[in-house]
């Protein structure tokens, strides 16, 4: 019997796409988000074709692409900006969609928020889950404000440090990959028409992507620096210091930033629940179940694929337990492949000169394999 009433915990990309997909299939959805305000935040995001396919299935693609920058190639450059190669990128969402789009994360999230409200999803802000009581027929939930609810299914889409994952007794936790990332939004130079990555400099690599008609997202992958730097207000002087040695467009973008530019600095962490992501009628998806280094840019794609497939299966004719088993059968091998290949790329970045290292092959094989349906 298909689920009728679903609680989605977490209002980010995964939870929003899931709420839309469930609602469009006739489920009654309640979404709770721990933040008291719900709107788009963050820096740039790379949306691969299979993520664009998922966004199209829930009706928000046109709005996202109205502001995003689609492209079908990427360029590899030396640290001084000279060209190594231009590569065609696979159309993982099918031939009728761009292979990739760069977007402001806020533009994507705002489109999703508006669509969730327009579809009549009940949204409750400043709230999370305190306790879960699972039974064969339902899940009873006690929220952090003392209120309660009964649901056919509870989905934790509450991110890397998921509370729902802990509440259902899954002990897997995130671990540092061994690299960190500086991220910044900057004015987009006229010549920037696709994502470009700079190799051979003093850090692991630098790069950027156009994300709107007038903005770009630039980043630097570095070793893990002091944890006191972690957050959205790292000094621009530090980014310039660590990025010294990268020229070309990347160097010009960073040098042109004003002194008060907001620089986000994070250690990169990964997590993979290498087994069932569900206990009874509660399941975690998206970054709560799997989060990988951003070296193949499949984070949003894996999360949105989770959401669309889960909605399809739990609103079908299978009993919930069978639907969740089928979901795991289809998702875990695909997610594991992306995770293992992303971690391999990270290891090669951290240990340059590793015999047999071939990042271009791994990236190409991964994206080619993802052209198959999720």
Explain what this protein looks like in three dimensions.
The chain contains ten helices and 21 strands. A hairpin with a 4-residue loop joins β5 and β6. The strands form four sheets. Strands 5, 6, 13, 14, 15, 16, 17, 18 and 21 form a nine-stranded mixed beta sheet that branches. It has two domains: 5-70 and 98-174 and 270-369, FAD/NAD(P)-binding domain (3-Layer(bba) Sandwich), CATH 3.50.50.60; 179-268, Alpha-Beta Plaits (2-Layer Sandwich). By secondary structure, the protein is α+β, with helices and mostly antiparallel strands. The radius of gyration is 20 Å and the shape is globular. The two termini are 23 Å apart.
What brief labels describe this structure?
2 domains; 6-stranded mixed beta sheet; single chain; FAD/NAD(P)-binding domain; 374 residues; Alpha-Beta Plaits; 32% helix; 21 strands; 9-stranded mixed beta sheet; 30% strand; alpha+beta
Query: How large a portion of the residues is in β-strands, by DSSP E?
Result: 25-35%
Number of domains: 2
CATH topology of the largest domain: FAD/NAD(P)-binding domain
Radius of gyration: 20 Å
Discrete helix count: 10
Low-confidence runs: none
Q: What oligomeric state is this? A: single chain
Mean pLDDT equals 95
**What's the end-to-end separation, in Å?**
23 Å
- The count of DSSP E runs of length 2 or more, i.e. the number of strands, is 21
Per CATH, the class of the largest domain reads Alpha Beta
CATH architecture of the largest domain: 3-Layer(bba) Sandwich
Q: What structural class do helix, strand and pairing data support?
A: alpha+beta
Helix share of residues?
Answer: 25-40%
Largest sheet: 9 strands, mixed
Output the CATH homologous superfamily of the largest domain. Answer: FAD/NAD(P)-binding domain
Shape: globular
């Amino acid at each position: 019997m298909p689920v009728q009433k679903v609680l989605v915990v977490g209002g980010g990309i995964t939870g929003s796409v899931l709420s839309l997909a469930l609602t469009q299939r006739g489920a009654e959805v309640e979404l709770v988000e721990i933040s008291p305000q719900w709107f788009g935040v963050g820096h740039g995001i790379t949306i691969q074709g299979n993520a664009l396919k998922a966004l199209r299935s829930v009706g928000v693609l046109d709005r996202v692409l109205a502001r995003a920058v689609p492209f079908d190639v990427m360029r590899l450059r030396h640290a001084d900006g000279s060209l190594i190669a231009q590569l065609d990128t696979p159309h993982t969402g099918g031939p009728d969609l761009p292979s990739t789009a760069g977007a402001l994360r806020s533009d994507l999230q705002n489109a999703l928020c508006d669509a969730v409200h327009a579809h009549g999803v009940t949204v409750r802000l400043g709230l999370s889950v305190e306790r879960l009581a699972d039974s064969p027929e339902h899940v009873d939930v006690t929220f952090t404000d003392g209120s309660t609810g009964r649901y056919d299914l509870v989905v934790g889409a509450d991110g890397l440090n998921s509370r729902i994952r802990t509440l259902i007794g899954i002990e897997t936790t995130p671990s540092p990959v061994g690299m960190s990332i500086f991220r910044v939004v900057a004015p987009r130079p006229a010549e920037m028409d696709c994502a470009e990555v700079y190799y051979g400099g003093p850090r692991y690599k630098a790069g950027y992507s156009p994300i709107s008609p007038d903005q770009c997202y630039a980043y630097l992958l570095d070793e893990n620096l002091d944890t006191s730097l972690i957050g959205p207000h790292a000094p621009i002087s530090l980014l310039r210091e660590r990025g010294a040695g990268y020229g070309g467009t990347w160097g010009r973008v960073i040098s042109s930033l004003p002194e008060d530019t907001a620089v986000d600095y994070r250690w990169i962490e990964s997590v993979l629940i290498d087994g069932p992501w569900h206990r009874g009628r509660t399941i975690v998806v998206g970054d709560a179940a799997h989060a990988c280094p951003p070296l193949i840019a499949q984070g949003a794609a894996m999360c949105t694929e989770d959401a669309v497939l889960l909605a399809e299966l739990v609103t079908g004719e299978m009993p919930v337990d069978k639907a969740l088993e089928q979901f795991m059968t289809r998702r875990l091998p695909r997610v594991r492949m992306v995770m293992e290949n992303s971690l391999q790329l990270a290891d090669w970045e951290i240990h340059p000169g590793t015999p047999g290292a071939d990042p271009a092959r791994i990236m190409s094989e991964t994206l080619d394999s993802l052209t198959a349906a999720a």
